[in-house]
Structures are given as structure tokens and as C-alpha cells.
């Protein structure tokens, strides 16, 4: 839960930093867009005013040239051209006065009015047939100086507009620098925030990792202490249990005809044998979990193993009314194994089969070659194994008491440890019709392999799911 909360907090912090960056970038982009739009509109206005000035200048020159030509020739085409130029001149002057509200525009308007007035007077005098030479002299003395004054006013207005454009460009550069500074400041702030957030969560993760490491080390020490305690208890209790067993045997031998003494002695002996078996299981569990479990492997005939196992459980099966199918003799199969440990595995599997097989049922023990291994199989006609129990059947302390059968949950776990110490595998499946089958493999031995070899198991790890096949049943084995 703590890891989930830490992960959720880290994700929330990352999302907040991302949103902050997105908000800052959005505001900066919108500000730049607004400033650019305003500056573009201002520039367009100033450029339009300069365009009007140049058009006004051109219209004035057309008026001068057309007016001079008309005064000399009285050509109607020149008069029409003069009239059109004068119309444009008036319109452009009015637009310039309306858009440019500054002193230089006012001076241009005044010069324009005087220029137009003199031009009109000259044209009117020519139309009244006044002396041409006098009109030309007036044209040179009055109109041309006014044109020069208008040109000067226009040049001043253009210079003023260009200065205004320079101010706009300078303001745009300052505004760009201001936004650039703000943007870099925002990036620096976000970098600092990201560094602080990263440092915070890195520290939290380091603290959580150290806590988890410490907890794991404590758990390992606790498991090691428990294993050592179990091993010590199992070892130390062997001697008194052995003494109790000897005393019970002695009482039985010296009891004469005393039935009560015989009964009690037998009970003591049975109890000590059961406790000894339990302690052996505890000792095996401790050595398997500690990774110190070992087996002494020699060449061994499989038929001898099956015969001894059948001898151990044949009478018990008959007394319960269960048919025990005698194993087929296979003298040609030899394995490299620890005979006593393999018999321990067979004893566990056959004991479970006998426990769960009802009267009138059947138990079968068989062996066969499987590649470079020998596969030994124990089958029964009992109720089988529930499908949900199959993946956990060989787990430590796993047991099911739903059928009233009790166990310590160590038998199959120890059996698996013994088989894996030999380099084999063990698994269980449900039979197609009824019952269950347990199988395990052992490595085949060479005919001349008589030398003793000790093979140690690898360090204990939690069991993974066995290659089991699902089936329907009612009880689990332990």
C-alpha cells in the first residue's frame, strides 16, 4: 500500500509539473501572439500612411506636369488628366489627414490646400484666355515653389513616419526580450521545481528501499533462526526418544504375561515412532529450506525399490480392503539414487494413496523408462484432487482437512525436495475417470556406477507451479 501511495504521489507530482509547464507555455505564447498582432496592426497603419504620402507626391507631380502642358497647349486630354490627378490628390490628402493626426500631417494639409488653390487659379485664368506668358510666369513663380514646399513637408512627414516605425521595431525588440526573459525564468523555475520533486521522490524511494531491505534482512534472519532452532530441537530430541523406545521394548520383553504392561509398552513405542517420524520431517524441512539438503547416490535397481515399497504397504492395503496391484519387475532399469530417500518418497505417496482410496478401490505402482530418466508412478482410484489445489500441492505446509484427513503438510514438500536433490521432477495429475496419479523421475545409472557420490541440492526457493493438469475431485494430499 505504501508503494502504491508513493507511486500515486509521484504521478500526481509529475502531472502537476507538466500542467504548470503547459500553463506557462500557453500564457507565454498567447502574450507573444497578442503583442505580435498589435505591433503588426501598428506597422500596417504606418506603412499605409507612408504609401498615402508617396501617392500624394506622385499625384502632385502629375498635376504639375499636366498643368504646365495645358497652359502651353490647351489640350483637352491634358485637362482631363489634370482633373483626374487633382481628384486623386484631394482624396489622398483627405485620407492622409484623417489617418495621420500629427503636426507634420497638418503642415502637409496646409501646403496641399495652397498648392491646389494656386493650380485652380491658373487653370481658371487659362480658360478665360489670359496671356499665356503671364500664366507661365505665375506658374514658375507661384506653383513650383508651393510644390517644393509640399515636397519638403512630405519628406518631413515620411521621416517622421520612418522614425515612428523605428520606435515600433525597437519596442517590438524590447517586448521580445521581455518575453524571452520571462520564458527562460519560467523554464528555470520549472527546472528547479522538477529537481525538487525528483529529489523528494528519490529520497522517499531510497527510504522505502532501505526499509524494505531491512525488513527483508530481518525476515531472513528470523527464518535462519527458526531453521536453526528446528534443526537443534529435532537433533536434541532424537536421543531421549531413542531411550524411550528402548525402554518400551525392554518392558515388553520382560513383561511376561502382563497384558496391560504389553499394551502400554506398545503404545509408548508407537508414540515414539510417530514423534521420531515427525522430527525427521522437521529436520528435512529445515535442511531443504536452508539449502543444505543432500543425498548419497549409488547405482540402484528400480525393481528392488518397487518390491520393498510393495512389501511395506501390501498388508496395510489388504487390511483396508484395497487392491494393491503388484509392480511389474523390470531388472534392466537402474537409477543413480539414494535408496532410503527414494523409499521415503514412495512411502509418502503410497501412504497418501492408501489414505484417500476407499474400500474396494485400487492402488498401482509402476515404473518405465523416459528418455535418460526412470519415471515411477503411483496411481489410485480415490476421489482425485481439486483443480484449485493442484498448483499448490507440493507447497510447504499445504493441507486440506475438508475430508477429515489431517496431516502436517510436509510430506509432499519433502518428497519434492528429495526428488529435486536427485535432479528429477515430481508432479501430480487427475486420472480421466477417477483418482489421481503422482509421478517422479530419477536419473538413470550406469551399470558400473558403484562409487559413492554426494550431490547437494541448490539453495531453497519458493516452489513454482508444477506442470499439473486440471481435474475434478474432492480432496487434496499433503
What does this protein look like?
The protein is α+β, with helices and mostly antiparallel strands. The chain folds into 2 domains: 2-199, Four Helix Bundle (Hemerythrin (Met), subunit A) (Up-down Bundle); 295-456, Heat Shock Protein 90 (2-Layer Sandwich), CATH 3.30.565. 68% of the residues lie in helices and 10% in strands. It is built from 8 helices and 8 strands, in the order αααααβαββαββαβββ. It has helices at 2-73, 76-99, 103-127, 132-254, 259-290, 302-320, 339-356, 411-421; strands at residues 294-301, 323-325, 334-337, 362-370, 373-380, 426-430, 436-443, 453-456. A 5-stranded mixed sheet has the order 2-4-5-7-6. Strands 3-1-8 form a 3-stranded antiparallel sheet. A hairpin with a 5-residue loop joins strand 6 and strand 7 (436-443). Helix 3 packs antiparallel against helix 4 and helix 6 runs parallel beside helix 7. Mean pLDDT is 77; it is low at 448-476.
CATH topology of the largest domain: Four Helix Bundle (Hemerythrin (Met), subunit A)
In DSSP terms (H or I, runs of 4 or more residues), the helix count works out at 8
Number of domains as seen in the coordinates: 2
| Overall CATH class of the largest domain | Mainly Alpha
Q: How many strands?
A: 8
Amino acid at each position: 500500500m505504501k508503494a502504491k501511495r508513493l507511486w500515486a504521489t509521484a504521478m500526481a507530482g509529475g502531472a502537476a509539473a507538466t500542467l504548470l509547464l503547459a500553463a506557462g507555455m500557453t500564457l507565454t505564447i498567447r502574450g507573444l501572439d497578442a503583442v505580435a498582432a498589435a505591433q503588426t496592426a501598428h506597422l500596417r497603419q504606418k506603412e499605409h500612411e507612408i504609401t498615402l504620402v508617396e501617392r500624394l507626391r506622385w499625384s502632385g507631380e502629375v498635376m504639375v506636369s499636366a498643368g504646365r502642358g495645358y497652359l502651353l497647349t490647351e489640350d483637352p486630354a491634358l485637362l482631363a488628366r489634370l482633373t483626374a490627378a487633382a481628384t486623386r490628390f484631394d482624396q489622398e490628402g483627405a485620407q492622409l489627414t484623417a489617418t495621420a493626426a500629427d503636426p507634420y500631417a497638418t503642415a502637409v494639409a496646409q501646403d496641399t490646400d495652397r498648392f491646389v488653390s494656386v493650380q485652380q487659379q491658373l487653370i481658371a485664368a487659362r480658360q478665360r484666355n489670359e496671356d499665356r506668358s503671364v500664366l507661365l510666369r505665375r506658374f514658375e513663380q507661384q506653383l513650383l515653389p508651393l510644390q517644393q514646399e509640399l515636397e519638403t513637408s512630405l519628406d518631413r512627414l515620411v521621416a517622421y513616419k520612418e522614425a515612428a516605425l523605428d520606435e515600433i521595431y525597437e519596442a517590438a525588440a524590447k517586448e521580445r526580450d521581455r518575453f524571452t526573459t520571462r520564458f527562460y525564468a519560467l523554464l528555470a523555475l520549472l527546472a528547479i521545481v522538477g529537481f525538487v520533486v525528483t529529489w523528494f521522490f528519490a529520497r522517499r524511494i531510497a527510504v522505502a528501499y532501505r526499509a524494505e531491505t531491512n525488513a527483508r534482512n530481518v525476515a531472513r534472519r528470523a527464518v535462519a533462526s527458526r531453521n536453526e532452532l528446528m534443526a537443534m530441537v529435532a537433533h536434541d530430541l532424537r536421543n531421549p526418544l531413542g531411550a524411550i523406545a528402548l525402554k518400551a521394548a525392554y518392558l515388553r520383553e520382560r513383561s511376561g504375561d502382563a497384558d496391560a504392561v504389553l499394551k502400554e509398552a506398545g503404545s509408548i513405542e508407537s508414540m515414539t515412532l510417530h514423534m521420531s517420524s515427525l522430527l525427521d520431517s522437521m529436520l528435512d524441512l529445515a535442511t531443504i529450506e536452508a539449502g543444505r539438503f543432500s543425498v548419497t547416490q549409488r547405482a540402484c535397481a528400480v525393481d528392488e525399490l518397487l518390491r520393498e515399497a510393495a512389501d511395506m504397504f501390501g498388508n496395510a492395503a489388504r487390511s483396508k480392503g484395497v487392491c494393491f496391484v503388484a509392480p511389474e519387475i523390470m531388472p534392466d532399469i537402474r537409477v543413480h539414487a539414494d535408496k532410503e530417500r527414494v523409499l521415503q518418497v514412495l512411502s509418502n505417496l503410497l501412504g497418501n494413496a492408501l489414505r484417500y482410496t476407499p474400500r474396494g478401490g485400487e492402488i498401482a505402482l509402476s515404473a518405465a523408462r523416459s528418455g535418460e530418466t526412470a519415471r515411477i508412478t503411483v496411481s489410485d482410484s480415490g476421489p482425485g484432487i481439486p483443480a484449485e489445489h493442484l498448483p499448490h500441492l507440493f507447497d510447504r505446509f499445504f493441507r486440506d482437512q475438508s475430508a477429515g484427513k489431517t496431516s502436517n503438510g510436509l510430506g509432499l514438500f519433502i518428497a519434492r525436495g528429495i526428488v529435486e536433490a536427485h535432479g528429477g521432477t515430481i508432479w501430480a495429475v487427475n486420472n480421466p475417470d477417477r483418482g489421481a496419479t503422482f509421478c517422479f523421475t530419477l536419473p538413470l545409472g550406469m551399470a558400473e556406477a558403484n562409487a559413492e557420490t554426494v550431490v547437494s541440492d541448490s539453495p531453497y526457493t519458493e516452489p513454482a507451479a508444477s506442470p499439473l493438469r486440471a481435474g475434478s475431485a474432492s480432496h487434496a494430499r499433503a
